[in-house]
Amino acid sequence: SGTRYLISPGLYRHSGLEIIHWQTMEGAAPHFVYRLKASPARLSFSRRLATARPDTDFLDCLGPAPLQIEGVADFGPSGDAPAAATATGDDIRISRAASTEVAASATVAAPGVLVLRETACPGWTVAVDGGARPLLRVDGVFMGVSLAPGTHEVVFSYRPAGFHFTLLISLCVLVGILLGCAGTALRRPPRASPVS
């Protein structure tokens, strides 16, 4: 369904935003909650690209401005970023969506960027056709991956930082508890049977 709300310490005046709540905490700057009037799709494909600039406003994603890409977009053998704004023949379908994974099938007629409108944060990775690819930051907030023409299976996955380390520590603790219980059971003297 896409991004619907934005929480920010900044006051934005943008035709695509409606302030629905604001709160000031003691000693802190006010925080604003905005509703996006036209919610962009959660997953989309774009050929409207531009190199990121330091003054990029992520609210540009609400309008017709080109996507602002941070990172190196690999567009295949030609290496040229596409100039066309839209094209026919693109088919993007989400096949699986969860809080930690979004999988999609994408058939695209020309190179561009597949954009997932989820907040880019450490722990997200992307694979295209089973191989790891660089995750691009789009409009300063969202994630994307460059795609060459053709049909691709794309999977965005999230694993929190330290996930594997935490899992290893949990397994060690569990093994320790089980060994402790087994040791206690082996040292316990056998029960005497009641005399009848």
Topology:
Elements: E1 5-8, E2 17-23, E3 31-36, E4 43-46, E5 49-51, E6 67-70, E7 91-97, E8 101-108, E9 112-116, E10 124-128, E11 131-133, E12 136-138, E13 142-147, E14 150-158, H1 163-187
Parallel strand pairs: 5-6
Antiparallel strand pairs: 1-3, 2-3, 4-9, 6-12, 7-8, 8-14, 9-13, 10-11, 10-14, 12-13
Task: Enumerate the strands of the largest sheet in spatial order, edge to edge or round the barrel.
Answer: 4-9-13-12-6-5
Level of helix content?
10-25%
Give the averaged pLDDT, no decimals: 75
Summarize the main sheet. Answer: 6 strands, mixed
Structural class: mainly beta
Query: In DSSP terms, counting alpha (H) and pi (I) runs of 4 or more, how many helices?
Result: 1
Total strands: the figure is: 14
**Sequence of secondary-structure elements:** EEEEEEEEEEEEEEH
Instruction: Give the strand content.
Output: 35-45%
- What is the oligomeric state here? single chain
- Uncertain ranges: 51-56, 60-66, 71-87
Based on CA atoms alone, the radius of gyration comes out at: 25 Å
Shape annotation: flat
Head-to-tail CA distance between termini: 74 Å
